[in-house]
Write a structure and sequence with these properties.
about 5% strand, about 35% helix, two-stranded parallel sheet, mainly alpha, Rossmann fold
Amino acid sequence: MAGDSAEVCSAGVQHPKRVSAQIIKILNEDGIDISGFTSHSLQEYRHIDFDYILTFDNESELKSQHLPSKPVKYHYEFDDLRQDAISGQESLDYYRTIREKIKKSMRNFVKEHLSQANAI
């Protein structure tokens, strides 16, 4: 969404693991192929002096406070992003809803903070 005006890193606060098949399918619907991705640990990025950190759940918000750099932080509260209690079509619908909420939030973030971005 930000074109060349941002370099994005993504990390979780849990141990790295493969991305779920449902999330791969949901992002594929938007033309994004993450089938070869694994999650990254927040610890992998401790050496980077970020400008911004965006968090999407309370656990991430708390753990990101321990990074050595002092980036500007934005917290977006979404429902439980690790919703494991549902399956099938209900799960896909749930992740589609979360995907759309994240997209809307990121479009607003890019518009407000990375105004030189080309592709919104």
